[in-house]
């Protein structure tokens, strides 16, 4: 008789070639692992979904628990959603939840996302003993800007005095003095914004990073073609930074901003605390850029120290007297608390990043959006014409002198240019995506100014984020929120019988935005 596939065993022996049963297959580690993971995902989603749909009853004061968003992955929580498409993920939650607040889970931590302006104001006005951003600031100061971990206690002790120094930047008369200095620098450099020089050696520093090229247009005339973002961004930085660091700093370190932008591109990677040897090119470049940035500021602070002691004889730093009032005011605080040069450099590093990373890019967006609409461009030019005048100096030389900014009336621009100001506010709304973060130090009830509004219970250890961009793009607050409308923030004032603008909830540069926006 022919042998069948199922009769290969010896007589009296169990057959070893029987096909595996479904029980055998389920016992296989190759199948058991994915089944276990699938069950874990389903259980996590079911459990968090039940928690979301059955929140605990309100507390004694009627405060509700912040609605939690269900998730699939234990511990990891909503990290994959944010990594895949954070913008659409949080916008969808904004549109499908009520109350202006919802809670996400990041690595087991509870993160309350706030997009209601009234709740945002209530959070930002909390005392530091209740909700503070300093823990986040300390970490970023260390892992991003290079502040020595061993000196963080000195930073904590000096912080109130360091914050007090910002009066030279954010309030009068310091704000007006800084604006006037920036205005004078702008007046002197505006004619060199684009020189038309083809040689890299003859170009200004902001042109060298902008791929400047002199070409012939259709009419046969020479025109300059350049990458607008780096051109505007670097020009703005070279105009404003000397008001903080003095004129010698950029003269001695002309490539400083290339390193600052490199670090900015790797900011989030540095914020994770990952070391340089991790094979991520953007991270490695950011570490190298930070080392060069700190080396430059080390030298600056060494010269400033010697200047205060009357020992500065280095011709490279002969103009250190024109360092800004804010930086000068911080120097005695550093000395009082025993800050090392490394700690001082890291603190100024964070200042320079904060002063340039967002505002200089905003200037680019404003110029780009206005120039993209020829009719709007003409209207803005007509509006600012009485307050900004450019003249062409007469010259008998074969090569004409660069145009000169003759008039730059800051008060006129602030008070009489509602269209320009509305463009600025609209760029703030659409082209900035800032979030504010606080850590909850003790349980408290969060409620807007309206006492009849819903109140929410935030608990110790929670994180609270103010997602400004979620409000700025909310269709319930702005018609066609993703459309840039230059006149969106203009209105007719019945008292003065003229068009005016209102910043509303926008306060990105402190209390007096008027003196800041005109520098655009």
UniProtKB/TrEMBL annotation:
Domain of life per record: Eukaryota
Annotated GO MF terms: heme binding; iron ion binding; monooxygenase activity; oxidoreductase activity, acting on paired donors, with incorporation or reduction of molecular oxygen
Span of the signal peptide: none
Pfam family, one: p450
InterPro entries attached to this UniProt entry: Cyt_P450, Cyt_P450_sf
UniProt cross-references to PANTHER family, sorted A to Z: AHBB (PTHR24306:SF7), PTHR24306
The protein, known as: Uncharacterized protein
Species per Swiss-Prot/TrEMBL record: Meristemomyces frigidus
